[in-house]
Amino acid sequence: MELIKSNKGNHKIALNGYTFTIKKICQRIIRWKCSEKSSMKCTAMLITNLKVKKIIRFEEEHCHGASKGAIGAMKIKQTIKECSLQTCNNPGQIFARSVQNIPKEILITIRRFNKKKYS
Fold first, then answer.
1. Number of domains within the chain
2. Strand pairing partners for 14?
3. What would the pLDDT profile of 75-89 be if each residue is shown by its tens digit?
4. Which of 106, 30, 38 has the alpha carbon at shortest distance from 68?
5. CB–CB of 12/5 below 8 Å?
6. At which of 59, 81, 99 does a domain end?
7. In whole angstroms, what is the distance from residue 48 CA to residue 23 CA?
8. pLDDT score at 42
9. Angstrom distance (rounded) from CA 48 to CA 101
10. Looking at residue 48, which CATH number applies to its domain?
11. Domain range for 81
12. pLDDT per residue over 47-67, tens digit each?
């Protein structure tokens, strides 16, 4: 289980090729919904303790496949965003430096996300 930042700056959990966003914070637990709830109508949920150190239980199964490449792509995009705030390099230089040692399956996923965003 890994905690990563979402595009909006919120927390996301990456686990076994799936991602989860916060649905509700309760007194003792946090309920997380599958990030594909809207687009894929996925009802999978994850429940953790408040410190997000321990998985308490899963609810429902995912109705779609896992995508480890997408999680890697999210991490790279976050790195690129952070670098763009810290350096004066142009976007092409930041991108080239950030993806120079990235596996092809993650690089393909990054390009696929960019095509969806600007189509």
1. 2
2. 2, 19
3. 777 777 777 778 778
4. 106
5. yes
6. 59
7. 12
8. 95
9. 33
10. 2.20.25.240
11. 68-118
12. 999 999 999 999 999 999 988
